[in-house]
Amino acid sequence: LCWLPPQAWITNAHDADAAIVIATTDKSLKHKGLSAFLVEAGTPGFSLGKKEDKLGIRASSTGNLIFEGCRIPKDSMLGPPGAGFKVAMSTLDGGRIGIAAQALGIARAALETATHYAQTRKTFDAPIAKHQAVQFLLADMAVRYEAAMLLTHRAANLKDAKAPYTKEAAMAKLAASEAATANAHACIQVLGGMGYVTEMPAERYYRDARITEIYEGTSEIQRLVIAGQLLKEMPA
Q: Per-residue pLDDT tens for 94-105?
């Protein structure tokens, strides 16, 4: 029998056929008493809250999972009892690479949009790409994108090789998400007023980029993870 407070900010809550739920099975063991369960949509006692009206990533639903007297059979448990914390942490590490890849796509799209516009928009009979101030913006966008891409590929390669990648995933997620936000901001700056209207995609990049610095761990959490791993790797 599962009694849980509503689980908030669940990505794809209204689209998924099942949810992985981490629940306490032994309070005395604290985090070692957490277990993971697969709960299918339609299970009695399992329902969804309202669909959130978000700033960005509007194609993806976000909502609450509600459990009221929800009975979950033992064979729905993922792994052995007490493995829930390990399942959650491993999911986070892999998920951070996924968010980094998402952010990379936004950073690249912003760079391409800004570069194309700068070469076609003219002022004083010359493309604005000829202006040094615009060139500086484009150069910084390209550097941010390429650096984040290399970090993301490195983390993904380590994961594929089944090597430890907690620090590298955090680095990739941090760099890519901040690159996405910065590039989306710079893209609007290059486009000027055209970047602020829905006729051009720049404003969507700006809205979609912001969440990548928040979910799967905020940028502040990524810095804590990176620093914690560094202190283990480089003891005094």
A: 999 999 999 999
Alpha-carbon distance 217 to 161, whole Å? 24
- How far apart, in whole angstroms, are the C-alpha atoms of residue 13 and residue 20? 11
Query: Residue 201 is encoded by which pair of tokens?
Result: 């995609």
Mean pLDDT of 183-207: 98
Separation in Å, CA 227 to CA 156, 171, 223: 20, 10, 6
List the beta bridge partners of residue 62. 11
d(CA 30, CA 82): 10
Which residues are part of the catalytic machinery?
216
Report the chain's terminal Cα–Cα distance, integer Å: 49
Contact 216, 173 (CB under 8 A): yes
Decide if 22 contacts 85 (C-beta within 8 A): yes
Residue 207: its H or E element: helix 202-211
Q: How far apart are CA 22 and CA 29, in angstroms?
A: 14
